Amino acid sequence: MKTYAAPEISNSPDAVPADAPEVSVFLPVFNEEPNLRPLHTKLDEALRALGRSAEIVYVDDGSSDGSLEILREIAETDSRVRVVALRRNYGQTAAMAAGIDAAQGKVLIPMDADLQNDPADIVRLLEKLDEGYDVVSGWRKHRKDKMVTRKIPSMIANRMISVIGGVPLHDYGCSLKAYRRESLQDVKLYGEMHRFIPIYASWAGARVTEIPVDHHPRTMGKSKYGLSRTVKVVFDMITIKFMASYQTKPLYLFGWAGLLTFAISFFSAALAISMKVLAWPHHADFVETPLPTMAMVTLVLGVQLFLMGLLAEMLVRTYHESQAKPIYAIRERLGFVNRES
Q: Which of 139, 202, 206, 219 could join 171 in a cystine, given CB atoms 3.0 to 4.6 angstroms apart?
C-alpha cells in the first residue's frame, strides 16, 4: 500500500498535498484499550482489500487507560497510521474535528473505535460514493444495542432530526460515514454537533444518501453513551432549526416572539381593565389579583431566557468561525514526519 510524507496538520479540509491518499479513516478513541489491536487488524484487512491508497488517523481524546500507549505501538509498526493525542477529554465532536483537520485523504471516513462498526463496510460506502454522492451515511438497520436506553430514544431523535434538518436519514448517530473532502470544507464543529454533519453538508449542496451497515454488540470496554445524550440532542435540534431558518434573518424569530409577548400583554391589560370597569367576569381592582402581572412577568422572563440561549449559540458560532480557533488542544502527534516505506 502506498505510503507518503505526512505534512503538518492543516485546519482547512481543502489543503490536500499532491501525494495525499485517496482515503482517510479517522477514529476518535477514548478508553478503548482492549479494542484497539483487534480493531486495527480488521481495519488493516479492509483497507488492503480496497486497492486504494489510505491512511488511518487515531485521535486519542484524553484516554485515562493504556489506549495511547497501544496507539504508539501501532504507529510504530504501520506507516499508514497517524496519531493525534488531545490534552484532555474534549468529547466526540472535538475529536471528530481533530480527525478532519489531520486527515489528508480525498475521501474522509469516520468510525467508532469500539468494534461495533465493521471496517468491511468501508468498501460499500466508497462504492456508493462513486455513484455520484458526496456523503454516504451508515444505517445500523439491525442495531445491537439495548432497546429502551439506546434504540428507542435513537429512533425518536432520528425522526425529529430528519424533519427539522430536512435530510431524511434513519441513523444520524452512526459514526460510520463517507464524505468527499469538499463537502466538509465549510463545516465548523463545536458543542455536540458532529451528528449533524450530513445536514450541514446538505445545506452546502452536497448529495446525501445512506446504506445499511453491519453493527456488532460491544464485547469489550464500556459504552460512553446514555440517556443523557438524548436531552443534548433535543437542545442541539433547537439550535439546528434556528440556524436553518433564522441564521440570516433572526428578526423574524425575535419579531414573532415580540408580537406574542405584546398580544399576551394586551390581553392581560384588557382583562384587568374589564374586571375593574365592567366587573367581568367579576369585579376586582388591579391590586386585588396578581394573576395578570404574574403571567406577564413569567412569560416575558421565559421568552428572554430562550432568546438569550439562541443569541449565545450565535455568538459561539461566530466566535469559532471568525477566529478559526480550534475547539481542542493537542498534546502529542505521531506519524507526522517522513518515514521510509
A: 139
Q: Tell me, what's the pLDDT at 316?
A: 66
* Amino acid code (one letter) for 55: E
DSSP conformation class of 27: E
DSSP letters along 61-104, please? -S-SSSHHHHHHHHHHH-TTEEEEEESS---HHHHHHHHHHH--
| CA-to-CA dists, residue 46 to 21, 118, 170, angstroms | 15, 9, 25
Q: How far is CA 313 from CA 14, 239, 320, in A?
A: 26, 7, 11
Q: Which among 9, 80, 4 has a CA at the least distance from the CA of 332?
A: 9
Question: Does residue 184 contact residue 197 with C-beta atoms inside 8 Å?
Answer: yes
Closest among 289, 238, 298, 236 to 265, alpha carbons compared: 298
DSSP state, residue 214 = -
Residue-level pLDDT at 9: 44
CATH class, domain 23-245, is alpha beta
Instruction: Count CB-CB contacts under 10 A for residue 188.
Output: 14
Average pLDDT per block of 10 residues along the chain, 341 residues long: 40 62 96 95 96 96 96 96 96 93 96 94 96 95 77 84 88 94 82 85 90 85 60 78 74 78 81 83 80 78 79 73 74 72 41
Q: How many Å from the N-terminal Cα to the C-terminal Cα in the chain?
A: 9
CA distance 192 to 94: 8
As given in the structure block, the three cell numbers for residue 146 are 439495548
Mapped onto helix, strand or coil, the DSSP state of residue 279 is coil
Residue holding cell 479494542? 35
For the chain, give every domain's residue range.
23-245, 247-323
Are 62 and 87 contacting, i.e. CB atoms less than 8 angstroms apart?
A: yes
Report residue 210 as a C-alpha cell.
445512506
Instruction: Residue 143: name the closest of 128, 132, 158 by CA.
Output: 158
Residue 244: its pLDDT value, please?
75
Residues 184, 13 contacting (CB under 8 angstroms): yes
**Cβ contacts of 94 within 8 Å, gap of 6 or more:** 61, 86, 189, 327, 328
Question: What pLDDT is stored for residue 228 in this prediction?
Answer: 62
Nine cell digits for residue 124: 460499500
